[in-house]
Amino acid sequence: MTTENIALRQNLERVRERIERATQRAARKADEITLVAVSKTFPAEAILAAHGLGLRHFGENRVQEFEVKQPKLAVLDAVWHFIGHLQRNKARRAVHLFQRIDAVDSLPLARALDLEAAAREKRLPALIEVRISDEPSKSGIGEGDLGTLAEAFAAMTHVKLRGLMGVPPYFEQAERVRPYFARLREMRDGVSARLGVALPVLSMGMSHDFEVAIEEGATEIRVGSALFGERTRGAG
User: Is 29 within 8 Å of 21 (Cβ atoms)?
Assistant: First the structure.
């Protein structure tokens, strides 16, 4: 086993221990949490190693980057999540490559995904990304437009709304993100009540703050650096 694989194994053990402690504090079960390994910028070999350790959900944020890696990963039994800002003109390629679109942030994008999924006769679970931070770099739909976009999903035949995703501001003290996570949960519950349908997925929390997210109801956490280490440039 390589040094990198040993480090990955140790990192995964630490992440799972953190998940276990957080779920215990929240009176939840660890198997309620989907761990999405954020593999963007890491090479296919890192994903293969992670899969060998039992990880099955992976998050990528660039269509072109994943297209380069995908041939080496085609044999894996894995769920590929698109977690970045998706341009509408890349909807066709995204539908082909990914099993989940976790960051739908506009009605035109949702419609484009539905058309492409219908053309492929593919059912595509999706999350709406809500902008829960005022930071200019953050993407997502505004809270005021969330209900309208969520209602539009009802008319779509192949894209299925499963919940919400959000990225809070970064704080050194993770506890400071708690109000953002709590608000996203409230928005998810409000949309669910408005539509009269269950929205079981709440995707929030990353390497430095996922414990707080779990305590506030996250069902899906996106963890990159705590698993793979610092970002690299290799994508092959």
Answer: no
Cα separation of 61 and 44, whole Å?
Answer: 14
Task: Give the model confidence (pLDDT) of 37-76 as tens digits.
Answer: 999 999 999 999 999 999 999 999 999 999 999 999 999 9
**From residue 85, how far is each of 55, 95, 120 by CA, in Å?**
24, 14, 22
Q: What would the pLDDT profile of 169-194 be if each residue is shown by its tens digit? A: 999 999 999 999 999 999 999 999 99
**End-to-end Cα, the chain, rounded Å:** 20
Domain layout of the chain by residue ranges: 3-228
Distance (Å, rounded) from C-alpha 148 to C-alpha 171?
Answer: 31
CA distance 227 to 187: 29
**Long-range contacts, 196-201 (Cβ 8 Å, 24+):** 197/161, 199/161, 199/162, 199/163, 199/164, 200/162, 200/163, 201/125, 201/127, 201/162, 201/163, 201/164
Instruction: Please state whether beta strands 124-130 and 201-203 pair in parallel, antiparallel, or not at all (unpaired).
Output: unpaired
Give me the half-sphere count of Cα atoms (radius 13 Å) on the Cβ side of residue 23. Answer: 17
**Which top CATH class is 3-228?**
alpha beta
- The structure tokens 């997210």 sit at 213
Of 90, 72, 83, whose CA–CA distance to 203 is shortest? 83
